[in-house]
Amino acid sequence: MPLFHIEGINPEARLKKRSSRLWLIGLAAAVVVVLAIVAIPASRAAAQNSLGVLCPPFCMVTFNTPSIFNAASTETIEIRGLFNFILVTAGIIFVLVEGLLFFAVFRFRNRPPESAMQFHGNTKLELAWTAAPAVILAVLLGFTLQTMGQVKAVAASNVLNVKAIGHQWWWEFRYPDQKIVTAEEMIVPVNTNIQVSIESNDVEHGFWVPELFGKADAVPGYTNRVVFTPNTASQYYYGGQCTQFCGLQHAQMRFAVVVRTDEEFKNWVAHQQQPAAPPESLTGDAAEGQKLFASLPCIGCHTIDGTAAAGVIGPNLTHLASHGFLAGGVLPNTPETMRAWIKDSQAIKPGNDMPSFSDPKGTNLSDAQVGQLVAYLTTLK
Q1: What is the dihedral of CA 72, 75, 81, 83, to 10 degrees?
Q2: Which CATH superfamily is domain 159-272 in?
Q3: CB 346, CB 352: distance < 8 Å
Q4: Domain locations in the chain as residue ranges
Q5: Please, what is the end-to-end C-alpha distance for the chain in angstroms?
Q6: Which of 133, 138, 169, 292 is the most core-located residue (most Cβ within 10 A)?
Q7: Tens-place pLDDT, residues 311-328
Q8: 159-272 and 279-377: same fold?
Q9: What span, in angstroms and rounded, lies between the C-alpha atoms of 169 and 345?
Q10: Do 242 and 206 touch, CB atoms closer than 8 A?
């Protein structure tokens, strides 16, 4: 019996009850913390959306989840082969080592300590288990260097040069030989060696399309290069993503690669080389929108070939209406989403360089004016 015992109260039971309560309180606190971690970013994301609802109808653009196992170029086929080889090798080693470990634990679990065999000083055994990993790593290094040589090889013929420039938070694509400047989507022909020069206009970004090529950094003041040869033409979006944290909207700095047949690519190039429709060919709201666009700061940030707009801060808008999405992969390119983006882009993608046109202290566009701008921009096909 305990030294101090009060009738009807068991100190041990009371201690157990208190411990149980503390455990429940700790569990509840952990649940609250986890919910807060999930809820706070979600509430902030909801607060950023000025469209009234999250989804639908203004759902974000979605790409099929990219995977290195869905290799769609010569280079990623080589990368996938190396990955599978390393994975299988590591799996065999893991099973062998763990199997021997469990065998030793269960086979000799009842032996007295003094009967354990001592291997210290066994030179042959120590050399063997040192040499075996070295040989395995040397083989893996050899296959890795071979794959790197194949992936990084510079093609001498049938080459398309593209320059990818990272901005906060969108991608610009320049085709120097074709004199084309576009954004968000990189269009390439099938069975052609695509050589991409990767640069950054501000901070460090990452350039990666898992199904077509490996990761490469976009470093200010330095040019990296990626070479890939797509082997399948389709209208499928090969989703790309910035892989280096580059600011508030890093996660929304997306782009896509579309692989087309030679004929489709030639038609696309011919269309992209055409200037925008001349102002005199526009009527109604589109004509008013063109005049309004020319009177706003837009012409200092964007370029529209054939007009006075010659800015380089924002994307080239010459063929904006032919793009599949807007704002670095945030929104599909529809008149409704374009209207919302023009009205208040900061509410959709905070921190981007485009000012809000719903700020009473700045340029405040009416719904009618926004409609005119949308009417004009949708003619830029």
Answers
A1: -100
A2: Cupredoxins -  blue copper proteins (2.60.40.420)
A3: yes
A4: 159-272, 279-377
A5: 91
A6: 169
A7: 888 899 999 888 888 888
A8: yes
A9: 13
A10: yes
For domain 279-377, the CATH superfamily is Cupredoxins -  blue copper proteins (2.60.40.420)
Burial class (CB in 10 A: 0-12, 13-18, 19+), 82: middle
Residue 62 has a pLDDT of 64
Q: Which two tokens stand for residue 265?
A: 């690519």
Instruction: Work out the angle at residue 172's Cα, subtended by the Cα atoms of residues 318 and 287, and round it to the nearest 5 degrees.
Output: 20
d(CA 45, CA 38): 11
- How far is 165 from 207, CA to CA, in rounded Å? 10
Cβ neighbours of 116 (radius 10 Å): 9
Query: How confident is the model over 28-46, as pLDDT tens digits?
Result: 676 677 666 656 555 544 4
Contact predicate 324/61, CB 8 Å? yes
Identify residue 288 by its one-letter amino acid code.
E
Joined together, the tokens standing for residue 76 give: 């990623």
Structure tokens at 296: 């706003």
